[in-house]
């Protein structure tokens, strides 16, 4: 199967696009704050840069105070960072890029509804069409792990198998995409799906879509809509 990122020639940011990737991550951070998905310094964003690097937000800085030059470049193979101290969750981002060659961007948030479901450690079933298309047939909860730990990298990759997102038990959420616009869309859909799930449970219980239909809808999104969903080179 071929697809975006499969051969290194169809990426949003190639090896020579570091400046554009830095600016895209900076702008995405501001967008996350403005849309209420992150507060202050909680959360982090990365994009894949060419074949073996990523650009990620720095550790413990308010997104609104960051410039493109503050972003940190991390080698995916060695974990060496240049240009500053990367987010403490950099190992989680790195492990996702290594495990999933098609992923081009990863967004970690502590958004409100996702955090509530993560606290209850409930897997969100296929509650809404749009949620299912972008996120996948369900939103699993990765087992609890200390932020930044090696265990965190393993539980997240496992929980995201066949999906573009997962919850982190008692912590927050991770959303991914083949491009940064797709990962941001996934973060919004994830939060919407969690909120609908919580409220549907209060209305007598969420009624999920059939698992096969949910799986098929996600596959259609990944294949049929791949070009338009990926946005384009910035
Ligand atoms: Zn976090």
Assess the beta-strand content as a share of residues.
5-15%
CATH topology name, in short, is: L-fuculose-1-phosphate Aldolase
Uncertain parts:
1-9, 228-234
Assigned CATH superfamily: Class II aldolase/adducin N-terminal domain
CATH architectural name: 3-Layer(aba) Sandwich
Determine the number of helices (DSSP H or I, runs of at least 4 residues).
Answer: 8
Tell me the helix content. 40-55%
Q: What is the overall pLDDT average?
A: 91
| Total E-strand runs | 8
Q: Largest beta sheet: what is the strand line-up?
A: 4-3-2-1-5-8-7-6
Distance between the termini: 26 Å
Number of domains: 1
Instruction: Provide the CATH top-level class.
Output: Alpha Beta
| Sheet with most strands | 8 strands, mixed
Calculate Rg over CA atoms.
17 Å
Return the string of H and E elements.
HEEEEHEHHEHEEHHH
Shape: globular
| Unique ligands | zinc ion
Describe the protein.
This protein has 234 residues and is of the alpha+beta class. It has one domain: Class II aldolase/adducin N-terminal domain (L-fuculose-1-phosphate Aldolase), CATH 3.40.225.10. It has 8 helices and 8 strands; from the N terminus they run αββββαβααβαββααα. It has an 8-stranded mixed sheet, with helices on both faces. A hairpin with a 3-residue loop joins strand 1 and strand 2. The longest helix is centred in the C-terminal third of the chain and has 23 residues. The N terminus and C terminus are likely disordered. Zinc ion binds next to loops. The site of zinc ion has 6 residues, from loops.
């Amino acid at each position: 199967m071929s697809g975006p990122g499969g051969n290194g020639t169809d990426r949003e940011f190639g090896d020579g696009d570091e400046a554009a990737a830095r600016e895209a991550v900076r702008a995405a951070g501001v967008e996350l704050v403005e849309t209420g998905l992150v507060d202050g310094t909680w959360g982090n964003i990365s994009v894949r840069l060419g074949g073996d690097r990523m650009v990620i937000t720095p550790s413990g800085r308010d997104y609104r105070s960051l410039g493109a030059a503050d972003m940190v470049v991390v080698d995916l193979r060695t974990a060496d960072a240049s240009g500053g101290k990367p987010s403490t969750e950099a190992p989680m981002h790195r492990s996702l890029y290594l495990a999933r060659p098609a992923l081009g961007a990863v967004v970690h948030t502590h958004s409100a509804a996702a955090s509530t479901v993560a606290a209850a450690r409930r897997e969100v079933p296929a509650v809404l069409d749009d949620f299912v298309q972008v996120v996948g047939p369900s939103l699993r909860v990765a087992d609890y792990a200390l932020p930044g730990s090696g265990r965190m990298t393993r539980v997240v990759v496992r929980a995201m198998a066949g999906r573009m997102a997962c919850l982190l038990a008692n912590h927050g959420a991770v959303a991914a995409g083949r491009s940064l616009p797709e990962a941001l869309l996934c973060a919004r859909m994830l939060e919407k799906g969690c909120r609908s799930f919580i409220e549907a449970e209060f209305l007598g219980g969420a009624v999920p879509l059939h698992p096969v239909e949910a799986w098929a809808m996600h596959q259609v999104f990944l294949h049929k809509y791949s070009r338009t969903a990926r946005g384009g080179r910035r």
